[in-house]
């Protein structure tokens, strides 16, 4: 399958020559920010959007460890509760916490959560984010990089493949909230100069390609040139079979080249610790629960399954799986 996209568009290579401000939509624990840190690229944590409580705390602990300010102190309990109204947060990664449930949550927990979100400039659920919340200003002085690794559950072959169309009302359909935000940015005259998307390869698969083309056409109308490619971690020195589709969209007449493959000489056992404490081993009961999990999902007809491997025999790992309520099971 081919797309109507030319990788030779643009008259000059993409260059970032101004201070970098990072905006992470669907931020999770901030893997994009971690990548920039590991690469030694200086940047500013500008704004994020993340609604899952566990991820909110993880992001804070990873990226704002030393910020222990009590941002909630000036506000009354009622004001703090009201701030969380409107589906701003989720406890299960899937559903917003309703206002009446917010009213029943311990106020100490809400204040701690408020402080974590303020410390990381977190605006909560992407549904409630407005362009003005992103504070994109002085684009002549700063380069704004906005990432939007939207949910993959409804795209992956391991799920039920309900798609990402505009009217699908699926989690993967949250992509179109990004479109809304970008068009609001255009109205304000403050579009981020660079967009970065990462998702499962099925985002450009047969079932979703028409929607993907629709998305690129929308970006085209906003003045972006988009370049996408499916990359596998094993092609870049990592012994893990993890294919992902990456897309870089750039404002202006520039082109972008994806990195050259370097292969992988390591095996899985080369990167795993040899001496691991007993507390990190799975109990027999937990292994049995994983097996029951596999049986249940096979009965449902989806591909989320528990698939143990021998580290000494495996050349590379499968894609890392996540917990139930998020994206349970292994996707590859």
Number of strands: 8
How do the strands line up in the largest sheet? 3-2-4-5-7-6
Regions with little confidence, pLDDT below 50 for 5+ residues: 1-7, 322-332
CATH class: Alpha Beta
Helix content: 25-40%
What average pLDDT do the residues reach? 88
Major sheet summary line: 6 strands, mixed
Computed CA radius of gyration, to the nearest angstrom: 21 Å
SSE series: EEHEHHHHEHEHEEEHH
Principal-axes shape call? globular
Number of discrete domains: 1
Number of helices: 9
Distance between the termini: 20 Å
**Which class do the helix and strand fractions yield?**
alpha/beta
Write the CATH homologous superfamily. Answer: Vaccinia Virus protein VP39
- The CATH architecture category equals 3-Layer(aba) Sandwich
Strand content: 5-15%
CATH topology: Rossmann fold
Question: How would you describe this structure to a colleague?
Answer:
- It is a single chain.
- The chain has helices spanning 31-38, 53-63, 77-83, 99-102, 107-119, 175-188, 209-221, 268-271, 284-300, and strands spanning 12-13, 20-25, 44-49, 143-148, 194-199, 224-232, 243-251, 254-255.
- The strands form two sheets. The protein has a six-stranded mixed sheet, with helices on one face. It has a two-stranded parallel sheet with strand order 1-8.
- The protein has 332 residues and is α/β, with parallel strands linked by helices.
- α1 links the parallel β2 (20-25) and β3 (44-49).
- It is 27% helix and 14% strand.
- The chain contains nine helices and eight strands.
- α2 packs across α5 (107-119).
- It has one domain (12-255): Rossmann fold (3-Layer(aba) Sandwich), CATH 3.40.50.150.
